[in-house]
Structures are given as structure tokens and as C-alpha cells.
Amino acid sequence: MAAGESRAEEIGVPCNIAVVDAGAHLVAHIRMDGSQLGSITHAIDKAFTSCAYRRSTEALGRDGQPAAPLYGVANSHQGRVVIFAGGIPLVHASRVAGAVGVSGGTIGEDRSVAEAAFAAF
Amino acid sequence: MAAGESRAEEIGVPCNIAVVDAGAHLVAHIRMDGSQLGSITHAIDKAFTSCAYRRSTEALGRDGQPAAPLYGVANSHQGRVVIFAGGIPLVHASRVAGAVGVSGGTIGEDRSVAEAAFAAF
Amino acid sequence: MAAGESRAEEIGVPCNIAVVDAGAHLVAHIRMDGSQLGSITHAIDKAFTSCAYRRSTEALGRDGQPAAPLYGVANSHQGRVVIFAGGIPLVHASRVAGAVGVSGGTIGEDRSVAEAAFAAF
Amino acid sequence: MAAGESRAEEIGVPCNIAVVDAGAHLVAHIRMDGSQLGSITHAIDKAFTSCAYRRSTEALGRDGQPAAPLYGVANSHQGRVVIFAGGIPLVHASRVAGAVGVSGGTIGEDRSVAEAAFAAF
């Protein structure tokens, strides 16, 4: 999470960063000063989504578009499934050990912060 | 369900398989080792959906696309309606006796496992 | 689960039996013929509760009474917390590996079936 | 939060610690290693409750008992209201600036960790 925060500061985008364990349960969450309220839930739910589906929220988002194979997936799990960039599974020895979720900026900025957190992991 | 599990093992895809009764209520569920967490709810809800709408989730999905007749159906029932393949009603003597729902692989794999379960029924 | 089913048959009480993993996620569920519909959710949620709180639902129930230390706990987790007997954590080497939840009979009968499943584990 | 974690380590109780802002929105959350799953939501919701009601969850709990003035309050807000100890409002210059919520041990332990976090604030 520190690596993610550093990256967020570097690009000047206050973010929410969340980490979940292998059971998709919250381990830690931080909201940086100035981040919008709507991003709290997105960060936590992006981490949840990436863990539950073992892929980035961005990849899931491609399959979740109208006419794509998983269209409608975003309606499931009481609306906790996020299908835009910012969630990345934390893979260790071919297993999903958890996931990180980032929200606060554009999806490109969120992805960049999530990748920094992932790289540190 | 045993037939579904056999098919899932045959194609090497750990799945969740769920069966509901004529009232769309869960009768049994099994998660095979190694299946992703997000598929638990999908299997159960695919079975629910197929029973409630008396058609495969795949067929409902065609009608649930933007501009199609039932667009928005996936928002109903607290998000329990699934509109991609893997749910099949169990029809007996022209009546829906229940349904099976499968989730774990691609939608093609899920359909294949559901069809194996259906065939055994 | 087979041990639980045997016990349930022995005492003539059709039950729902559910098992969750260490993350409180459903691994398997079975509803025996003749069990009431309300017990499906209870069995699954008793297993969830016992895993999440690392104790039997009966023990949690003692603390969840009016004026007891955890009064109000049953309102949390979107109402998934069950505070009457039938849920038991599956402890292995001092860690909670999951839990079993049983519902269908009186709380004494549910406890008895859960204990049989626990003993087999 | 660091002060809370120190206190939790001192008494040997792995806790969840959450902080919300004056709008009752999550600012940060940490789950210490070994804490039970059920405590994630409790910590966050205790902080929410203390901020929303401008008092400790323990004080609210006294009013939330059967026959007390606010009996039923724990049913409100989609079950997010917690009425046992562990949530304390963070008061600054007579205004509620936010709240801290702690869950993981007995209510006495949770209160102790929350008070340590409050004192540091």
C-alpha cells in the first residue's frame, strides 16, 4: 500500500487503496486526503472483484460489456462487482493470495497506482 | 450433480454446481477444489434464474441485451438474475421441476457441464 | 456432510447442511427431502457465522441476548449472523478451517446433526 | 491507529481498527494478523455508528436495549448500527471530527484499544 500511495502522490492523485486476502475479505484500506467519497467503495470492491474473479477488473470489464460473454456480471454479488480498471489480483506461486483495489483518479491513474502496489508485492 | 462433476473433471475445469427445486430454492450446491470464489454465487443464481424464467440463462441473456425485449432484467431480484450461459431448467413432463446452474470456466465450459447434468436428469 | 445426513436420518429430521471454508465461503450445501424452506438460508448462514466468529452459533447466541455483551450482533452483516444452535466451527491445529451449519429441526436436533458432522471432520 | 495497534499488541488481541471522517465515511482500516473475519465489518460499523450518533457505541447500546428509549436502533441503516463497546467519536473543539471503531476481542478489550486510539488523537 505504501508503494501505491507513493505512486499516487507522484502523479498528484489522491486515491483510496484497499487490500483483500485470499477470501476476498478486507485486510487494509486507506483514503488519501482529498479523495472523492465515491471512491471508498470502489477501491474496496475492486479488490474484492479481482480476488473473486482472479483477474484485473479491467479484464473482467472487457467481458462485461453488452454482447460480451459475461455481460451482466456487474449486477451480481449485490452490486459489488466492479468492471473498470483499478483492481489487480496478487498472484503468488500460481495462487491468488489476495488483491489490491485503487480508486480516485481516471481509470488510467487508478491502474497505474494499483500496478505500483502490485509491483511492490 | 455427479454427472456435472464428471464432465467438469473431464474438461479440467473446477466448477460450482447448484440445483434448485421448482420453487427456485436451493436443493444442493458443490464447489469443486480450485474454483474461483466469484462462481459460488453465479452457480446458485444461474439455477435460480433458469427456474424463475423457465429458460436457459443464455436464452434470457439474448433478451437482456441493450435494445432487446428484456433489457434491464439483470437488475431485478436484487441482482440475482444471471444472463450468461450456465443455467438450464430441468423440464419434466412439460413442467419445470427445477434447474441446474454451473459456474467456474468460460461460458462454453459452464454450458457444457450444465448440459451434462441436465442429460443425467 | 454424510455423517450429518446419517445422524439426521437416524433422528428422522430432514435438514439442510452447509459447509464453508476458512473464508466463510460456501463449499457445499445439501437440503434433505422434506426440509422446510426457511432452513436453507439458516444452514448456510450458521456456517458463515461460526466461521466468522470462531465459535458455535449457540455460544454467540448467549452473548447476543438483550443486556449481554454482544446484543445487537444479529443485526450485523446484512442479517447473516445467526444466534441459535446449529453452527460449529471446524477447528484444525488451533485454526478455524471452516464451519458447518445445520437447520431443519429444533435447535437441539440441529446441534446434534452439526456435532455428528463435526465429529466426522 | 498506530496507538490502537500498539495497545492491541500489548494486550495480545489482534484487532480490526477503523477510522471514519466527520461524514462517517471510511478513512482507513487495518486488520491485524489473526483477527476473526466477523470483526472487519464490526470495526467499520462501530466507527460509522459513533460518528452518526455522536456517542460511543457502548452509550448507544444502553439506549438500544429492550424497553430503553432507542430500542430498535440496531435495525436501522441496513444493520450498520452497532450497539456494543468499541466505537468512540473523535471530538475536537466540541465538534465530532470523525470516529474510531475497534473489534477483535471482548468488548472490554475493544474499548481499551479504541480509547488508546482516541487518546492519541
UniProtKB/TrEMBL annotation, chains A, B, C, D:
Q: Which domain of life is it from?
A: Bacteria
> What InterPro entries would the database entry show?
GlcG_carb_metab_protein (IPR052517), PduO/GlcC-like (IPR005624), PduO/GlcC-like_sf (IPR038084)
Q: Which SUPFAM superfamilies match?
A: GlcG-like
Give one Pfam family: HbpS-like
Q: Which PANTHER family match?
A: PROTEIN GLCG, SLR1406 PROTEIN
UniProt protein name: Heme-binding protein
Where does this protein come from, organism-wise?
Streptomyces albipurpureus
